Amino acid sequence: MKTLSLAAASLSLGATVHAAVSNTWPETDVCYGLAVPDATASSGTGDIYFQLSAPTSYQWIALGQGSSMSGSNIFIMYLSGDGNNVTVSPRLGTGNRQPQYNANAQITLLEGSGVQDGVMTANVRCSNCNSWSGGSMDFSGSASRWIHAYRTGSALNSDDPAENLQQHNQADPFSWDLSQARVSTDANPFVSSACGATDPTSTTASVSAGPSSTSTANNPNSGNGSNLGGGASPIDGVSQRQRQQERMQTAHAICASFAFVGLFPIGAIIIRVAGFKNLVWVHVATQTIAFAVFIAAVGLGLYIATSGNQLNQAHPIIGLVLFVVLFFQPIFGWMHHRLFKKHGGRTAWSYAHLTVGRGAIVLGMINGGLGLQLAYANSSAKIAYGVVAGVVGVTYLASIIFGEVKRNQSARDYGENEKERARLDREDSDSTGERVVVDRA
């Protein structure tokens, strides 16, 4: 990341504004600018100005105050609904999940914002960026911690500041020297002093700005190569590590969904509605394959959650609980089957097997939705999963009701048959009171 201090002069409402806007390039075509008015720097509170600029080939870019996603004050820019303007979404980082829309942010989109020559730009004034839910920043100092992130891909074209976002391709923390971003007047400094579409320090760009200095201290990619994306920079901006992560997330989602929206419910439905020979072994085989697939999903999920510091999130926690519980489910099932044949009815093992199985299937389906949320899945993926899981879930619950009704009816029929058998036995007794044994099997 390269940081430059650009000296510029601009006219605003007839007054001359002398500005020292600090710009930084995490990529050669992604730029963030910052300006802190003297009045804000003196008091530590007040307005600040920042700019986000990137080609429209980026689905979104984000600039945040803070050292990590958790507790950060984030501003995300993407194309508006008509594609001719930009939407700036203020959000709060609450951990390694999609930041939540912050309706309390006091921001204003200023002159110079919009789309021109394939570049989207947002010039923003923030009036309460000194404090937010989860953190604060003292503008009277010099050192400050920030984060940035972006995702490449097709445009969102949305006017909704709470639009669902897919997970970033790249994200890095960096420091910003606020003393290099001082402006004398509380006004928009970006009208004539803008980031531009290309890093002026790159070999392909011409430097048209004033004095510049590159700070390696502010560059998380310099020197030691510490880059959250693995240090690679392919043409499309997506690192090799990020591609591998996305493939593993996809494989994890497929395996887990196949287990909890496919095999586990199918095996449970069959045992309740079917009635062919060796049905129990078909049930056992189906659930065994489902558990094997789920083990693969757990392995992938553990790697993803560990590498992404997400083990404290609800989705992996529930997944691990399901894994432990289901590990004992075959034991419950074997004891249930063995004692059911012996006693001709359900035992404590039966109820343990039924309760664990039913609860695990429903919770597994719900956890799939939590996983999609944690992975920043797009709306179409969430809708598709919700529809399929909903249909399978309703079918599964219907099979449980059908099975219980069928079981109760069989019990009533058995009881009535036993009563009828007793009545007939009484009628077959001779006049001396001696019972006549009649074979009614």
What features would you highlight for this structure?
441 residues; alpha+beta; Immunoglobulin-like; Four Helix Bundle (Hemerythrin (Met), subunit A); 7 helices; 39% helix; 23% strand; disordered C terminus
Question: What do you see in this structure?
Answer:
The protein has 441 residues and is an alpha+beta fold. The protein has two domains: 2-222, Cellobiose dehydrogenase, cytochrome domain (Immunoglobulin-like, Sandwich); 243-425, Four Helix Bundle (Hemerythrin (Met), subunit A) (Up-down Bundle). Helices cover 39% and strands 23% of the residues. A hairpin with a 7-residue loop joins β5 and β6. The radius of gyration is 32 Å and the shape is elongated. The N and C termini lie far apart (87 Å). Residues 5-19, 202-239 and 426-441 have low confidence and may be disordered.
Which CATH architecture of the largest domain would you pick?
A: Sandwich
- How would you sum up the major sheet? 8 strands, mixed
- Portion of residues within helices: 25-40%
Number of distinct helices: 7
Helix/strand/pairing category: alpha+beta
**End-to-end gap:** 87 Å
Helix and strand pattern: EEEHEEEEEEEEEEEEEHHHHHH
The domain count comes to 2
- CATH fold name of the largest domain, please? Immunoglobulin-like
Number of distinct beta strands: 16
What's the alpha carbon Rg, rounded to whole Å? Answer: 32 Å
| CATH class membership of the largest domain | Mainly Beta
User: What is the average per-residue confidence, as pLDDT, rounded to a whole number?
Assistant: 78
Shape: elongated
CATH superfamily of the largest domain: Cellobiose dehydrogenase, cytochrome domain
Strand content: 15-25%
Which residue ranges are poorly predicted, with pLDDT under 50 across at least 5 consecutive positions? 5-19, 202-239, 426-441
